[in-house]
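Let's see one such:

===
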Amino acid sequence: MIDVADKPSTVTPSTGTPVMSQEGTRADSPWLRLSPDPEVVRLARDHVLEVLAENDVEGIAEDIRLIVSELVTNAMRAAQRYASAGGTAWASYERPVSLRVICRPLWVHLIVTDPDPVTPASAPADLLDESGRGLSIVDSIAALQWWVKGDHGKACHVVVTHEQVTLKPEEAEMLRERVIL
């Protein structure tokens, strides 16, 4: 149901000078691979809280836990929808959804992947709606959110800044371009 990849994938800045210092960079979590089972949403929330605690991230942990819950739930639904629509179907042991938590001194970067190449649209939801509010919630908390389509689905990137930190436009652009992680 859950699997932590042995080796975290690392991203080395390709060009440019980071606007924010890389000094004091904290450990990155390895990819957490998840099966399309609703029970793993709880495991993903527990995992992110553990990573945040290991990296002394305080003050924003509950917001990040909520975001992870929304993103992993959406990824699970997308994986199931994709399989039902004729995409790849998975055996019970396969894990088509992944989560990674990257902790930095000024922000936390979350990446959630799933096999469905269709990116969802964030639509305003009524406060009384029982579903459909997830991305609106993420938008209201995150400093930055973007989607990247790949050969095998998509990745949702969300950056949450620590309290009292605001991303400058050039920092946001560099994060989107993956120059600074």
The first helix runs from residue 39 to 54.
